[in-house]
Structures are given as structure tokens and as C-alpha cells.
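USER: Please consider what follows.
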Amino acid sequence: MKTPVTVAVCQLDTRMGEVARNVALALSVAQRAVGAGAQYLLFHENMVHEYPPDAADLAQPVPGAVSDRFAEFCAHRQVCVGFGLTMRAEPRPYNAAIFINSSGEIAATYAKRSLVPRAAYETYMAQLEGRLIDMTGYERLLEEEVFQRGSQDLVFDWEGVRAGALICADTGRDDYWAMLKQRGARVLFCLFNNPGLRLYHPRIFDQIRAFGGYFVGANRAGSYPMGLPGRGESFIADPQGRVLADCGGEVNAFAVATLSPQTAAQDRDGCR
């Protein structure tokens, strides 16, 4: 792993199906994060599309118009960006993460493997929120009914960083973490889309320590469906599970940390 590297988690208030708005918002926050020194930027799961009823119709090819916008930004600013979108495929789209190099080339793509079934989703949310969740009108939010399941883990060289990737519910699988560790991932980039990263993933710090590498987790914040709060809680942590940078509940914000495998003492910035 090259050292040091400066990484930003970007925490946005995106809207269902508003692709142009969401992309413009992401690039605006990215511009600010680059101004703060970020070399690698991560956005949340399905940031481009969210989960509208016409998700399959809105799905983007990769490469395509949306990835080209981010590729142009990366090449112009000489930074690397990872983000989530609904990726066109047959018979159904993927819930995917796209990683772009500073040259504007696509470094890797990853398709989410753990698609949450409706019953498990409702039960888990009700348990955490302490109340029943009204799903009326949000039937198509259930990704098992929208996407096809990915089949491959991902470890790749992201311009000198040995990177791994997971998407939200994938992090519940300890065997996925173990495989990424076995394949030599040093920084794990995780994309989330739920009402609170730490609340909905209470084992995350134990998993980071078991993984033994850096963790970069980006989540949505602000407006959220079903009357739930968009708590955000995006953060960056070192291999010991110590938080280096944290967005808290801030909306359209970012947090930056500088990572180095030689030392546990890390530079830290808060949300901006």
C-alpha cells in the first residue's frame, strides 16, 4: 500500500429516482472534499438512483453517462472515486459499486451479494427502531425484488491501495470479511444505505478489528423513506477499530482521514 493516502467519506441527502440531482450533489461535495486534500472519495450505496419504483428503467450501463461524469471529474482533479448505482444487466440490474481511477478509468465494479428479503428487512428495522415500520408505498425498496445477486468478492489494486469492497448487508457475512483479508485487502471500502451505519451494524467495530485493515464506510443521511431518520454515521477507522473521522448526522458533508499502514496514530479531520 502506498503511504500516506487521504480518504474522504461523503454523506449525502439523495432522493429516489432524481439521478441528475443526485449526481450534481455528489460532484459538489466531492469538489469540497478534494479541496480538503482527499485523494480517494467514497459515496453511499445506490447513491445515484436510490430505490424508485422504476429502478430497472433508470439502471445505467457501466461505462455509461453517469460513470462518465465521475470519470471526467476524477481525471480533471486526479482523484479516485467510489460510488453506488443501479447497474444495467439482464435479467435484472445489480446494486453495484463503481470505483474509478484518477485517470478516469474504471478500476473495478462490485455487485452486492446479500440482498435482504422483505420479512427480514421489516423485522430487523422494527427491532432497531422500537416500533413497527409502515412499508405502504415502499414495496419496491426491497432489493430482493429489484436486483439480481452478485457472485464475486472484490479485491483490487486502486492506484497503490490494496482495496476490498462490500455493500451494506454484505458486511453481516463474517466469511466475506475473512476472504477479503485472506486476499490481502488493506483498506475496506463499504457502501451503506440505511437509517444509521452504527445502529444498523452493531458488530462493525469487532469486525474491523478482526479484519485488521482500515475501514471506510459511507452512508446516506437526511431524508429517508418510511418516516425513518437518516442518521448517517459515516466514518473511517483504523485497524484497531479507532474512529479517525466521523460525519455524525451531518447532511451533504464529508469527513477526511489520512491512512498509513506504518503507524496507528492517524491524522484526523471532522465533517466540513
Q: What stands out?
A: The chain is about 25% helix and 30% strand.
